[in-house]
Design brief:
By secondary structure, this protein is an all-beta fold. The longest helix has 7 residues.
Length: about 350
Amino acid sequence: MKTKLILTIAVIAAGVTNAQMAVTVFSDDFTGSMVDSKMWHIPTWVSPTDGTYVGRTQFRCSQNASLPVVSNGEAIIILETYNPTGYSFYGTDLISNRTFLMGDGLIFTIRAKFKSLIPRGIVGGIFLYDLVGTGPNHDEIDFELVSNRPSEVQTNIYDNEPLGAGHPVFHPISGSVTDYHTYVIKWFPGEISWQVDGVTVRTSRNLVPERPMHFHLNIWAPDAGWAEAYDANLQWVTSPALNQVYSMIVDYVKVDSLMFPDSVSEIDRKESKPDFFPNPAHDLICFDTPGKLSIKIYSINGALVLSRQDITDCTISVADFEPGIYSVHYIQNGISRYTKLIKY
């Protein structure tokens, strides 16, 4: 049955140290007959090493495939054993169009399951991911549904690390991964927590990526390099007549952004911190500490709106910005800082 998703602007008091305003910045309840191209995309093939081939699976690419279908208000993320473009499994990697920046904190809520019956050897991913610069290191925060271990879910995290095993942990869940569960990733400054059906299963404080990431939903078949998820009995086929289709079904995705109501006054009080002024600002911001400056400014939904390198006059124009709250990452005199800008 479809679970109704209600968009909210609310004060969250539970699970945080002070009351925070929560604004829904991304939400998809999957209406219509196909996933919305204004919100999602699938990758575009560039080269054999571009990340569109994982394990034993070629992901659908924009050159020869469409976005996933929606049925009964659910997105159907599919894996097929027959690949019309080559000799492999044919999977799906659905990616948010926008990136997400942590800011004061983000809460990702996803309701999903594997469609039963599903064989061993299949993985469904629910995760944040992006390369750091041009790679090879990356950031990632994820849930993995592993059909080999149907009564558990795996969490993993990478903080500016190469591809590989990462830091995986399996956690018991009630029922099975073929039952609907609500998966929550809380990405806060200094802490990440993972929840399943309202129960916190893991918290990380020593590994907390701070760079913006896209959100992904995917399904694929790993190779023998991931022994816990691989099954040799699951094989791709060379004939469409033998094709089998497996799927991860997603009921909804919602992302809430947290903001401290008193964040502006707190910025102004930190006189020892080499911040900019004025804040709030209308036309210009100026850094009062001399030294070469590099800066990136992101909107509340994670979109990069300004990027400048090696600035010497330490003055930035924000006149063209829409009024709102922005996250600022700047490096000056070898010091890297994250802070907030209010544009009015």
